[in-house]
């Protein structure tokens, strides 16, 4: 079966699925320049650490392609200035997921590398377009490898491999990546291998990535699944012994394994520890920030209060999605979009390169060695 896709691209043309309208309306919107790319990411029409980086890169690719077609670049220097300033601008869209910053650094290095031999603007633009297009391919391949490594790890490390249910948080599937997904990719592999009894997903307040996006992906592919409120996770673990692993994604993993992920991840790690089950982080190596020794340095994005005091994606009688206020007027709001789970609560970090685990007796991962 096909999985859903959040990004539609052909050279010079980019459309993104407006995830604010899911699951009720499937609306693809054009992204014609970096301003559109920045807005799609900032408003969370596009979200998910890998998808954010890919849409940012492709928005630069279509913007530069259009300018080249219209001969708007007069010199190589002017072209370089446009590319580098666009990357700096795209980095201001959301601060926590490292993938966007990793991509901006790689593309800046690419511009620096090719500028020496560049004779005309297209000599700078073409390599950027090709690098952006390659991300679409590489991301899906990375996720397939994550799915394979993660499913193997879970089957080999649970108590009862004939009775595996898992709980996942937020959305880490085809709607957060170029396809297949990270944590949800592991769920897909377990299901495809007939190793999954049931997948539980949390609602993931306040944006509801779980009830609106993950539930949508699971139902779309007929994966046996049940939606719970975030507040039900501990009761589920206490009452359902088949739930033997919690699998989540990541926005930024520090060198010691501390992981920034959707708000609510930290308390899932605490309850996994209390109930003695696996807590597994799934992420491509582009989500690992080796420049950060620990999670203390990770910037946590705070989102607008209106995203918490309303319920996004409510379906009105006229079949339009909208946000409806639920909280009392005048109440103060704290709305961090992520939290940091310390490495000692994490069983394993599954990447496309394999599964990182801690040395016996150690509370931290050594991801520098793992990735070297
Ligand atoms: C594979 S997506 C990783 C990560 O991104 C999500 O955050 P958001 O929906 O705010 O972009 C969530 O934290 C996922 O786990």
TrEMBL record:
Record-level GO BP terms: L-methionine salvage from methylthioadenosine
InterPro entries in the record: IF-2B-related, IF-M1Pi, IF_2B-like_C, Initiation_fac_2B_a/b/d, M1Pi_N, NagB/RpiA_transferase-like
Function: Catalyzes the interconversion of methylthioribose-1-phosphate (MTR-1-P) into methylthioribulose-1-phosphate (MTRu-1-P).
Keywords from the UniProt entry: Amino-acid biosynthesis, Cytoplasm, Isomerase, Methionine biosynthesis, Nucleus, Signal
GO cellular component: a single term: cytoplasm
EC number: 5.3.1.23
Gene Ontology molecular functions: S-methyl-5-thioribose-1-phosphate isomerase activity
Residues of the site described as Transition state stabilizer: 170
Annotated active site: 251
Record PANTHER family: METHYLTHIORIBOSE-1-PHOSPHATE ISOMERASE (PTHR43475)
Swiss-Prot/TrEMBL catalytic activity: 5-(methylsulfanyl)-alpha-D-ribose 1-phosphate = 5-(methylsulfanyl)-D-ribulose 1-phosphate
Pathway: Amino-acid biosynthesis; L-methionine biosynthesis via salvage pathway; L-methionine from S-methyl-5-thio-alpha-D-ribose 1-phosphate: step 1/6
The UniProt record lists the keyword Glycoprotein: no
Family, similarity comment: Belongs to the eIF-2B alpha/beta/delta subunits family. MtnA subfamily.
Matching Pfam families: IF-2B (PF01008)
Enzyme class: isomerase
Species for this entry: Circinella minor
Name of the protein in its database record: Methylthioribose-1-phosphate isomerase
Compartment(s) of residence: Cytoplasm; Nucleus
SUPFAM superfamilies: NagB/RpiA/CoA transferase-like (SSF100950)
């Amino acid at each position: 079966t096909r999985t859903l896709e959040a990004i539609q691209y052909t050279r010079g043309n980019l459309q993104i699925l407006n995830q604010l309208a899911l699951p009720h309306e499937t609306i693809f919107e054009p992204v014609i320049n970096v301003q559109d790319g920045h807005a799609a990411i900032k408003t969370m029409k596009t979200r998910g650490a890998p998808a954010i980086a890919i849409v940012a890169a492709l928005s630069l690719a279509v913007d530069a392609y259009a300018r080249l077609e219209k001969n708007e670049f007069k010199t190589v220097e002017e072209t370089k200035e446009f590319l580098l300033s666009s990357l700096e601008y795209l980095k201001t869209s959301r601060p926590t997921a490292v993938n966007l910053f990793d991509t901006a650094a790689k593309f800046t290095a690419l511009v620096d590398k090719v500028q020496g031999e560049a004779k005309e603007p297209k000599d700078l633009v073409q390599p950027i377009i090709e690098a952006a297009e390659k991300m679409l391919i590489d991301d899906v391949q990375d996720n397939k490898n994550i799915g394979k490594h993660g499913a193997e790890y879970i089957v080999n490390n649970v108590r009862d491999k004939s009775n595996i249910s898992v709980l996942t948080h937020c959305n880490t599937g085809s709607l957060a990546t170029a396809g297949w997904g990270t944590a949800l990719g592991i769920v897909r592999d377990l299901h495809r291998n007939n190793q999954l009894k049931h997948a539980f997903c949390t609602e993931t307040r306040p944006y509801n990535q779980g009830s609106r996006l993950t539930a949508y992906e699971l139902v779309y592919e007929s994966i046996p699944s049940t939606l719970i409120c975030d507040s039900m996770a501990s009761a589920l673990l206490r009452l359902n012994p088949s739930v033997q692993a919690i699998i989540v994604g990541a926005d930024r993993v520090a060198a010691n394994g501390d992981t920034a992920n959707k708000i609510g991840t930290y308390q899932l790690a605490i309850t996994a520890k209390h109930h003695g089950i696996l807590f597994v982080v799934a992420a491509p190596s582009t989500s690992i920030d080796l420049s950060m020794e620990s999670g203390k340095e990770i910037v946590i994005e705070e989102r607008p209060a209106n995203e918490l005091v309303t319920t996004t994606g409510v379906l009105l009688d006229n079949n339009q999605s909208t946000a409806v206020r639920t909280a009392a007027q005048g109440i103060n709001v704290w709305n961090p979009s992520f939290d940091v789970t310390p490495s000692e609560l994490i069983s394993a970090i599954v990447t496309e390169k394999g599964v990182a685990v801690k040395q016996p007796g150690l509370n931290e991962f050594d991801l520098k060695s793992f990735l070297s």
